[in-house]
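Chain A, query sequence.
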Amino acid sequence: MLTLKFDENGLIPVIVVDEKTRDILMMAYANEEAVSLTQTTKYAHYYSRSRKKLWKKGEESGHFQKVIQILVDCDEDCLIYTVEQTGAACHTGYRSCFFRDSEGSIIGEKIFDPEKVYGKKGALNI
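Chain A, predicted structure.
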């Protein structure tokens, strides 16, 4: 059994990859409880550093992540969740959080309007 190494805040970074396309969808943090819930339910759970609370991906948007596999890096301090993504991964409405290139040009696919899903609180001016 592996012993995951959480940082001084009790968090571990999680990189999320689409099972079919292998695209990187997002990066988030999980605490021990979030990792345990993910393993138990097979749906991605994370810890929000800004809201200081546990959250299940898709609980507000309906854009869930069914976890197919969890990979652990060699140092046991980073995870990869391979997922079946329902809808978009990014709260800004894009399929992936990595929807811009280094020049700032939008290269990703917009799936939904965040104001319609989250109201004004979820809208991000890009």
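The two ends are 43 Å apart (CA to CA). The chain has one domain: 12-122.
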